[in-house]
Design goal:
alpha/beta, Rossmann fold, 2 domains, three-stranded antiparallel sheet, 13 strands, elongated, disordered N terminus
């Protein structure tokens, strides 16, 4: 019995040793076999991260991307990575980026720790997936609209400073290296915009219009833009309806003409004269500089109309319709062409006034003048704004962008520009701080750094900064 007991203990001990040895043998085997699963998980995570990172870099490098780069990359990865653990735990870094107006280069690195389930059994707890990618987006073709205020308040040294700065700006933008790739549209605005060569395409033909209406026929207030009027001897400006204030096409042969009149300053007409008409889609430096040099003052500040024509001068709907030196422009928004709008004003946006009797050229207080410019401006009527009707109110800076006011129209155009990826620079030239113009220009600019508040006459510095941005890092052929 004693011997048998000893033998049983030996057999039990032997079986225990065999089980231990077997376990020690199986654990590495399971780890190695299961390790293939871990390696597959690592490979899949690596491929998914690299593919997603490439897409994120392209999104971040987009010239139309207005968000900060880490936010853009993070949001892209969250939207395009299926692996939830990878999506939630990836570490992103944007160590290097170069950003200018027409080129953006972004480098992104990312890492993710893949935990191993099976290889951990043999002491390998996990591995780090690392990825790096660089994306570049650049634009060699540039379309630029210059929307410039020539209202009566720009008289004297302000207009002189503007002309000098704008002419120099044209020289910088249309330099020898870039001139063949760049088109400029000049849009001066006073009370409205003289569209010159485009006028006959959109104004109602005289055969279908009421020509030189009497005061009873014309005195219709807000309904004036809906009536078909033409005026003998008036310049080439048309009336606009609420639906016109975006970048889209205008209906042909359906818009009334603006009569010749002024409000605050005698002989500065509400519709700019032909010397101050638009000049569109051109790279003719001398023609642009000649037009700028010859600009004459116009009464009123129709900044909404100026911005509208700046937007239309960049819109692909107008391709082949603007004349100029580039028959195939404006290009599509998703083309590689960079579209830029520069808008400058020195004052608050104004309502759209009109005379009640267009034969009396002045609408302000007692200053009512007959067609004869030699007639005393104190005669013929009298009474505050006796000859004035308002066809469109100004609205306040709190007006909604959809409201039927001048402020609302301006905001509608700015929304359209932003939605189409147009880069907007704005310049407030000696304007009232925190006033309506200050607020509107700041809102319309593509970024805070794209808005210039010029307190003195040195508007040249603002234009120089914009020109430097436009020309930064252009890619030579």
């Amino acid at each position: 019995m004693a011997v048998e007991a000893i033998n049983r203990k030996k057999r039990t001990s032997q079986r225990g040793n065999i089980a231990l040895l077997t376990a020690l043998t199986i654990v590495p085997a399971v780890g190695l076999l299961g390790g293939a699963v871990d390696i597959v998980r690592y490979t899949e995570a690596s491929a998914e991260l690299r593919n997603a990172l490439d897409g994120a870099a392209l999104a971040a490098a987009s010239l139309t991307n207005k968000h900060d780069l880490p936010t853009t990359v993070s949001e892209y990865l969250k939207a395009n990575v299926r692996n939830k653990d990878l999506r939630d735990n990836v570490v992103i870094n944007v160590p290097d980026s170069t950003v200018s107006l027409n080129k953006k280069q972004v480098t992104i690195t990312a890492s993710y720790e893949v935990d191993f389930y099976f290889l951990a059994l043999i002491g390998v707890s996990g591995m780090t997936v690392s990825a790096q990618t660089t994306a570049v987006q650049s634009s060699t073709n540039v379309e630029l609209a210059m929307v410039l205020d020539i209202s009566s308040s720009m008289r004297g040294s302000k207009l002189t400073s503007l002309k000098s700065a704008a002419e120099d700006f044209v020289d910088q933008i249309l330099n020898d290296k870039n001139i063949d790739l760049t088109s400029v549209s000049l849009v001066p605005f006073g009370g409205t915009v003289n569209i010159q060569e485009l006028f006959d395409e959109f104004a109602v033909p005289e055969a279908s219009a009421t020509v030189d209406p009497n005061s009873a026929t014309y005195s219709k207030g807000t309904n004036v833009p809906n009536l078909l009027f033409r005026f003998t001897g008036a310049d080439r400006c048309i009336e606009y309806r609420h639906d016109d204030f975006d970048s889209g096409m205008l209906p042909t042969y359906q818009r009334a003409q603006v009569p010749h009149f002024w409000k605050w300053n005698n002989f500065n007409p509400w519709c700019p004269q032909d010397q101050s008409a638009v000049l569109l889609n051109t790279n003719d430096k001398e023609a642009l500089k000649t037009r700028i040099s010859g600009m004459l003052l116009s009464d009123g500040t129709g900044m909404d109309v100026g911005a509208m024509w700046g937007a239309k001068a960049l819109a692909p709907e107008w391709s082949g319709r603007l004349g100029g030196d580039f028959p195939s422009r404006p290009a599509a928004y998703d083309d590689e062409t960079l579209k830029i709008l520069v808008i400058m004003t020195d004052g608050e946006i104004t309502p759209q006034y009109r005379p009640k009797d267009f034969s009396k050229l002045n609408t302000h207080k007692k200053n009512i003048v007959n067609k004869d410019p030699l007639t005393s401006h104190k005669g013929n009527g009298g009474g505050k704004n006796k000859n004035q009707q308002t066809i469109l109110s100004k609205g306040s800076s709190n007006s909604s962008s959809s409201s039927s006011t001048a402020v609302g129209h301006f905001r509608k155009v700015c929304d359209d520009l932003e939605g189409n990826g147009v880069v907007v620079y704005s310049i407030g030239f000696k304007i009232k701080p925190n006033g309506t113009a200050d607020k509107l220009l700041s809102e319309c600019a593509s970024s805070d750094s794209n808005y210039f508040f010029v307190e003195d006459l040195n508007i040249q510095a603002a234009f120089n900064t914009i020109a430097a941005s436009v020309n930064a890092l252009r890619i030579s052929g």
